[in-house]
């Protein structure tokens, strides 16, 4: 028998989120919000993905379409990844003729044209997730892609992308056609219109990327996305908070379909223009970064005078009181302090738990030689990451 809702043990193990609906998850998908916010988002192209392409993404192993010009030599023998062309040896005949893109050639070509359209370099993502955990697979060690194959390699290596494909609606409540929660759950499930999102590549300065938390259409908290300490942010904290608050009030507060959500912004120098990068659901799956979800769920809300279009007047006709309240409430803006990294548990590299995609492990099982080679590369990559970490902390 399941414990009653009032059982203290249950209260301790479950965060008090309002039910997360599939509609809410879909509202945070790039393809749903992008048309509404195109003007405030860096240039992007969306490519609808047919089932055949989705099957390719879901397949085990990483086989790339033939691409003589852009597939580097090392990709055939060194890592278990191979392109349809250029294979040598006894087993190569089949692979020579195999083009995984044969059944989605149109999509491949659309992607090629979109990359061109966006100036030759793009940052890819699926409906919700970018392959941030797979950049170590890429020759550039980043999400910068110049060819369709660069994109496929990243997408197929990413656990975050797999989550979009296989677990988009995990832990969501069922709802009826009007969006009301169904009890008992309805069996009908919403299907996901999968899209490849290609964003024109820009070299972003991670210090001015922020995640913002909105509860009941009120901006209650914001914080850095990058978990390093940046001294200069402290001096401009008030200005940044005000700029982002205004952006939220004007652009998002009344237009986003759900009352609670998170959004990510980029505020490049001179810090007076805000770019929308992404939305994430108000749900446990979203990383609360410098906050905990329990804090975010229980932080005090601003008085409503801070969010109303017009402040109601007092009986004597003045609105001084409301202005005072507006003055007092500030969404909490959390930055990483100089001596903070330990406190926040940043001693492990970000996404370290995701650095070994299943596909790569599978690829490395091709025999002892392959495994040894793979292990060597793995060690090198780790040493490089350690070195980078040491350099970063020296800078601090
Ligand atoms: N156009 C771009 N060019 C280069 N890099 C970009 C671009 N857009 C975003 N990025 C970088 O990619 C990172 C991840 O992008 P995004 O926030 O869309 O990923 P995500 O998977 O939704 O992340 P999360 O899981 O944290 O919500 C951003 O923090 C930013 O540093
Ligand atoms: Mg996101």
Automatic annotation (TrEMBL):
InterPro entries: CDC123 (IPR009772). Residues 67-76, 87-97 have a biased composition (Acidic residues). It holds the Pfam family D123. GO terms for cellular component: cytoplasm. Residues 64-106, 301-323 are annotated as: Disordered. Signal peptide: none annotated. Belongs to the CDC123 family. This is D123-domain-containing protein.
């Amino acid at each position: 028998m399941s414990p009653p809702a009032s059982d203290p043990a249950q209260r301790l193990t479950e965060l008090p989120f309002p039910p997360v609906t599939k509609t809410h998850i879909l509202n945070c998908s790039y393809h749903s919000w992008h048309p509404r916010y195109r003007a405030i988002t860096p240039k992007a192209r969306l490519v609808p993905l047919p089932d055949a392409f989705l099957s390719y993404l879901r397949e085990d192993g990483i086989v790339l379409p033939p691409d003589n010009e852009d597939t580097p030599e090392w990709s055939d023998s060194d890592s278990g990844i191979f392109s349809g062309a250029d294979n040598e040896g006894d087993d190569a005949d089949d692979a020579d003729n195999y083009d995984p893109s044969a059944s989605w050639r149109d999509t491949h070509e659309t992607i090629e044209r979109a990359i061109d359209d966006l100036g030759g370099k793009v940052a890819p993502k699926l409906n919700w997730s970018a392959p941030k955990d797979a950049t170590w697979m890429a020759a550039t060690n980043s999400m910068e892609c110049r060819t369709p194959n660069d994109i496929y390699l990243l997408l197929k290596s990413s656990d975050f992308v797999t989550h979009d494909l296989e677990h988009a609606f995990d832990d969501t409540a069922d709802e009826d056609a009007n969006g009301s929660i169904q009890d008992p759950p309805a069996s009908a499930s919403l299907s996901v219109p999968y899209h490849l999102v290609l964003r024109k590549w820009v070299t972003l300065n991670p210090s001015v990327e922020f995640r913002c938390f909105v509860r009941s259409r009120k901006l209650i908290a914001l914080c850095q996305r990058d978990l390093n300490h940046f001294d200069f942010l402290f001096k401009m904290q008030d200005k940044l908070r005000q700029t982002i608050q205004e952006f939220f009030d004007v652009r998002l507060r009344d237009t986003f379909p759900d009352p609670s959500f998170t959004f990510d912004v980029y505020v490049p120098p001179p810090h007076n223009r805000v770019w929308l990068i992404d939305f994430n659901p108000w749900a446990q799956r979203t990383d609360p970064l410098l906050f905990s979800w329990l804090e975010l769920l229980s932080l005090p809300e601003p008085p409503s005078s801070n969010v109303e279009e017009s402040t109601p007047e007092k009986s004597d006709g003045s609105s001084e009181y409301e202005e005072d309240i507006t003055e007092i409430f500030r969404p909490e803006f959390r930055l990483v302090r100089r001596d903070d990294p330990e406190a926040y548990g940043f001693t492990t590299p970000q996404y370290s738990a995701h650095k070994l995609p299943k596909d790569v492990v599978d690829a490395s099982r091709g025999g002892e030689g392959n495994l040894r080679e793979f292990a060597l590369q793995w060690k090198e990559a780790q040493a490089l990451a350690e070195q980078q970490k040491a350099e970063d902390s020296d800078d601090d």
